[in-house]
Amino acid sequence: MEVERAVYLTLTAGMIMSFSLLSIGILLDLLGVKIYSTFILAGTLILVLTPMVRVVAAIIAFSSSREFYNAAVATIVLFFMILGILFGFVLRIIPSG
Amino acid sequence: MDPVASLLMLLMGTIAGLFGAVLGVGGGVIIIPCLVMFFGFSIKEAIAVSIVSVVATSIAGASRYVDQRMTNVRLGMFLETATTAGAVSGALLTIKMPSSLLYLMMGLLLIYLSISQISTRRREEEKLRKDLFLGKEDEIARKLGLSNSYPDLAEGKEVKYTVVRTKSGLIASYLAGIISAMLGLGGGIIKVPIMNQLMNVPMKAAVATSKFMIGVTASTGALLYLAYGLVNGEAVAPVAVGVMIGATAGTYVMNRMKASFIKLTFGLLLLYFAYNMIMRGIYGS
Fold first, then answer.
1. Most B-contacting residue of A9, A35, A96 (CB-CB within 10 A), to test interface
2. Residue among B42, B64, B124, B27 at smallest CA distance from B254
3. Maximum Cα–Cα distance for chain B, whole Å?
4. What DSSP designation does B226 have?
């Protein structure tokens, strides 16, 4: 699969899933149903994990189309993302924007 | 939560999303002050909501821009290596408080970038008309296939462009990543000028590619805020939903605008950021 398609599908799937869960969460909150926070948490979690999933999708797509330099580039991005999260947890620091 | 407050947050998110999609920025510049001023959030709570909504604006905007062939995925991934590395380095440096000098220097850099964006807006139109974005690409750009094209709806043609100065672009992105993490500055504000002014990427492709990139750095931050339980769920849901609606709508508007108008608006936004940075440098944050 070409990389643009793989990235597009990942981003769109992530967006539709998080959008739906968050919207249900808002409605349940307005209706006073207690479990609303579970939906919001799940929607937020899917939302913030989507960019990482799209990097993984790009690595797979680049590899399968034999663009090995670009696959390496995407792997470096994934490495620094994971490193950022690990540093954050170990040192309790939060990188901003 | 109060239904009126939810609706207002959704509306604010929509405006921030629309604005962010047209300029390739996260929209924190709208979300953070609004949450603090109108909804009584502390700065820290507002930043946590804002960083999640930056991810939302990025994936909503980017999914449309990738589909419209506006985004340069390879260039985006290439520069992300530097912005993510910069974000990690910057986060380690923030243990020491940033000095007022850093704010002042950033303010001056932003003034320079603003003037340069505004003054090159006519030149951009000329380059689009005469196909002057084509040139000789460097070794890295050739190996990675970074040069690309996009369909410009305002010009009514396919604009081809060659990516140049990849090494300088990479170094600048690394420094931008560090500074962003240290000063809490959003992602897009420096990424767009780096691509547009340094690497010869047309404004609209730079905006779309920046939109694509900002989600990656924001997501690691957002995940940490979420893990520490700092994200207010009742606020984040309407803001993120609004931002996704606004960003999706914005992607249909941006390509129909004149590149010179986008550059002018972007230049003014840079000026606002410059003012903010200088004030913080002088009076403390």
1. A96
2. B64
3. 58
4. H
CA distances, A76 to each of A1, A2, A21, A73, B108 (Å): 21, 20, 31, 5, 32
Query: A interface mutation test: which of B11, B192, B220 has the most A CBs within 10 A?
Result: B220
**Would an 8 Å CB–CB cutoff place A70 in contact with chain B?**
yes
Closest residue, chain A, to B47 (C-alpha): A96
Chain B CA closest to residue A74:
B77
Output the pTM of the full model: 0.94
Chain A residue with Cα closest to B95:
A93
> Is the ipTM, as predicted for this complex, more than 0.85?
yes
Over residues B112-153, the pLDDT tens digits come to: 999 999 999 999 999 999 999 998 888 999 999 999 999 999
Could you count the other beta carbons within 10 Å of the beta carbon of residue A37? 14
Compute the C-alpha angle B105/B111/B117, nearest 5°. 135
- Residue entry with tokens 């002042």: B104
DSSP B1: -
